[in-house]
Write a structure and sequence with these properties.
Strand content: 15-25%
Number of domains: 3
Shape: elongated
CATH class of the largest domain: Alpha Beta
CATH architecture of the largest domain: Roll
Structural class: alpha+beta
Number of strands: 20
Distance between the termini: 82 Å
Helix content: 25-40%
Length: 391
Amino acid sequence: MTGNYLFEEDRLQHIDHPVNAPSVYNGTVPIICDSVNSTLFYLRETGRGGGIEIRNMNSTVNYTNATDITSNSSSWNVVPALQHGIDVLFGLESSYDYFLQQFGRNSIDNAGLKLNGFINYSSSGVSFFNTNGFVFGKQVDSTVLPATSLEIVAHEYTHGINLYTANLGTIGEQGALNESFSDIFGVVIDHAINPTTANYLIGEKCTSNGKAFRDMAQPYQYLMPNTYLGTYWNTTTTTGRGSVQNYWFYLLAEGGSGINDLGNSYHIKKIGMADAAAIAYRALTLYLTPTATFNNARTATIQAAIDLFGTCSNQEEEVTKAWYAVGVGTNYTGGVFAAALFPTTVLCSNGSINPVNLSMNATSYEWDFGDGNVSTVANPSHTYSSTGNYT
């Protein structure tokens, strides 16, 4: 009566077929495609999570009418406009594999969510993630190339992970952190796949002149800040501030010395990309919330370093020092130091005292309130029930 479909069954027979396909930005790459028969191959696979499918939007904004990308041979010698789909499939497969192997994460939602990629979106030079999937714009001319390089596809994949974890927003400092975490893992995955050629640039392969969109190692090159509230600090764009955490990650992974825009000198010893990435992932997926600030990111990454490598570890020290280097928080203080501040010292009637814990590098606490009561929490509150002087 309504014309709606009641049931649909796909009678085509499929098999995941490994091939070496010619990508645009990554040379010949290993991918998995769908072999329907010896002369029909689809740019999709079912082996990873709920599967990965790449479709062509044909210069439109209509996701439902996007068409399958096919080849008449496993060599995938398709036209350049469709060849970018190979880059997207390779990028999504590589991103899925990295997070699964390093952190046991099954797809962006950690539950095997199917991944949909779209190429030739109507606008040029764009890439983004939304509830439809991972979307990449079309090529208009030789100066604006599709943004489908490995680090950009991995960048968008990380936006998907953010959605299902911290869910950082898109404005303010949370938006800057959102973009930065995606930059971080875009570069990390590029290094994992291309260890001899990868760098800290974002998007340099997708421009006709080789100029990148951002440089995590030298944000100044693109008029972006490397210090919180420092030179080039921009409150109108998220990427114009996310470079601060990008530079924090670069210093943490590679080390560095200098004087920041606040006049503070720093010297960071590298901990390596693997440890830095593990700390960033744990902070993003376990500790950060949708409205997180740079200070929250500092606290989260320090705690992640403690979780993974221990209190007073080299990793905790360098994480803290790297944040100081980019102008967020104080420098690292070694050793365990116990201290507290009591904002209230006199009560005229029954009431609570709430001491401020100023201890450094502690893992356990013991408070004695002088009336027979004790506490082992980090930030206690205590009410005295009898008149007296208590130490």
